[in-house]
Amino acid sequence: MTPRDPGSRNPGNPGNQGAHAPGTRSTQDPGPHAPGAPGLGSRALVMARIRRALADVPRAETPGEVPVERTYHRVHGDRGSAETVDLLAEHLADYRAIVHRADTPDHTGTPEAPGAAAAPSLPALIARLLADRGATSVAVPQGLPASWLSDVPDAVRRVPDTAELTPHDLDTVSSVVTACAVAIAETGTVVLDAAPDQGRRRITLVPDHHICVIRVPDQVVGSVPEALERLDPARPLTWISGPSATSDIELDRVEGVHGPRTLEVILVGPQTAGRS
């Protein structure tokens, strides 16, 4: 934001008559604070200059009526669905998310090859992750499938996502489990859109531990343009690329500043069994 000119809140201030920033005035433009001119703020000054600059532009050339050709690639590379899921897992790990693979909730996976480990069922994996975390409570979106938490002991308190739930309440919650709207392989990004199985945005920002379930391959796309085709811009979208982190000018990384310190992503689907 450009600072206001000195005295712009009080046009009658005699100490600012004629005050202006050096080099911002021409002989044709006396400026807003010339003797006898009404006082204007910086925004009004900028907008006035834009209007003067556009005064002789033909109407046919206005930006809203000129089509913009977009020739960028919708996706980079030729990948199958399994390769796209693997790329997502790789990029999630690059962002320091912890990636797991699970089978569908109703059964344990069958190894794809002799000697390969079977993927755990989704309920069993969620229960183990919460236990490893020492979670005593978990935030639960209203539309989260009940089967996902069927293996979680009753001692772990379920905190339903309601309008009455405050950030202070959430600050005492150990973990949150959600689904997602879509995941982008090329950027390692998970997008939430506040659907019933994801809940309100705040439940994924305040707790320090987020378990996010991605149904693969159905919810995985290759690129951002492909993701945008699936998303409703009118919904509250949260784009997550790894756990919350920030770095200062010396690149000292601090995690958990803007959201969960730990992000665990579960790629769930029968075809994930046996993968690393």
UniProtKB/TrEMBL annotation:
Q: Which InterPro entries match?
A: FTHF_cligase-like_sf, LUD_dom, NagB/RpiA_transferase-like
**Pfam name, any one:** LUD_dom
Q: What's the superkingdom here?
A: Bacteria
Name of the molecule in the record: Lactate utilization protein B/C
Residue ranges occupied by any LUD domain in the UniProt entry:
172-268
Query: Compositional bias (Low complexity) spans?
Result: 30-40
Sorted alphabetically, which Gene3D superfamilies does this protein's record hold?
Answer: NagB/RpiA/CoA transferase-like
Coiled-coil blocks: none
The ranges of region (Disordered) come to 1-40
Supply the SUPFAM superfamilies for this chain.
Answer: NagB/RpiA/CoA transferase-like
